Amino acid sequence: MRRITRFATVGIASAALALSATACGKTSSDAASDSGDVKAAIAYDIGGRGDQSFNDAAYAGLSKAEKELDVKGTEAEPSDGEADADKVQRLTSLARAGNNPVIGVGFAYAPAIEKVAPKFPDTTFGLIDDSSVQGENIANLVFNEEEGSYLAGVAAAKVSKSKTVGFIGGVETPLIKKFQAGFEQGVKDTDSSVKVLSQYLTQPPNFDGFVKPDLGKAAAQGQLDKGADVIYAAAGLAGSGAIEAASKADKWAIGVDSDQYNQKGLAAYKDNILTSVTKDVSGAVFNLIKSVKDGDPQSSEIRYGLDKNGVGLAESNPAYTKMTEVTEAVAAAKKNIIDGKIVVKTTP
């Protein structure tokens, strides 16, 4: 079994590692060749591993690479209230330790990768959910979240009996607005009489909306009180609170990023998780690691949409698969998006 080394934050020990590597004049590629091992690292977004969503999907890709590619994996957890400087130090330490690729999970790593990547030209840096920072050794792993969210909107409009559905965004950022835009468009294109209640949990620079389930639970309860019978939350760990609230009210929840019906931490609520908008983050992470190991590292923008099954709707809940009218409507919408007959908006 391959072993994963975990460290919670980058402090004095990591700084010492960086200094010792500099003193010896070694680059990341030197370190890798010394050990004879292929090593890859992922630095988690806010919430860390165990969020039952985005970060866990990235971990799944690393875990698959360990098993199938004989890669040694390292995970780096974020610290509470950290600044960009902390991310810079974390990525620097991972690169100096010989990891290649080094993958930042989430758009928050963009400023750090912009600073660190030029210092390690022989190391590939993966940046998930952001293409604003580019370079010869940067692979921008991005997704058409709006397309998957459109399909969720179709499903929500089809199953809603109250003609009211809800969208909860964790933090109001351009990325999460893509989820909102696609969902609202999918609902309205399917049934213009269905009302969509949309709200955000926090505003930048407060990112609690991605990590505090109680915020998601309270927001979902408010929407349920207003008659919503389907709630779609794009809010990371906070979304688990929304799923809990919907389940306890015996209404439908729609998960995000991972197939949340199959997440162990949400097992108590799975019967009420109609479907999930999936992003193949695990596949993107695995593909990047494989490309580096194969000697042909990915770079520039690698986009995953419906056409590549990079986004989509999970079909794990047997109740969902039995809803023929719903699944047929979703399948038709998917085809029309791929064929270009439906253009999904990226802003509400």
Automatic annotation (TrEMBL):
Q: Which PANTHER family match?
A: ABC TRANSPORTER GUANOSINE-BINDING PROTEIN NUPN (PTHR34296:SF2), TRANSCRIPTIONAL ACTIVATOR PROTEIN MED (PTHR34296)
Q: Where in the cell is it found?
A: Cell membrane
Superkingdom of the source?
Bacteria
Name the Gene3D superfamilies for this protein. Answer: 3.40.50.2300
Print the organism lineage: Bacteria, Bacillati, Actinomycetota, Actinomycetes, Kitasatosporales
Task: Give one Pfam hit by family name.
Answer: Bmp
- Full protein name: BMP family ABC transporter substrate-binding protein
Q: Which family, according to the similarity comment?
A: Belongs to the BMP lipoprotein family.
Coiled coil spans: none
Which residues constitute the signal peptide according to the record?
A: 1-23
For this UniProt record, the keywords arranged alphabetically read as follows: Cell membrane, Lipoprotein, Membrane, Signal
What membrane topology does this protein have?
Answer: Lipid-anchor
Alphabetical list of CDD domains matching this protein? PBP1_PrnA-like
Q: Where is the ABC transporter substrate-binding protein PnrA-like domain?
A: 45-339
Q: What is its main location?
A: membrane
Organism of origin is: Streptomyces chengmaiensis
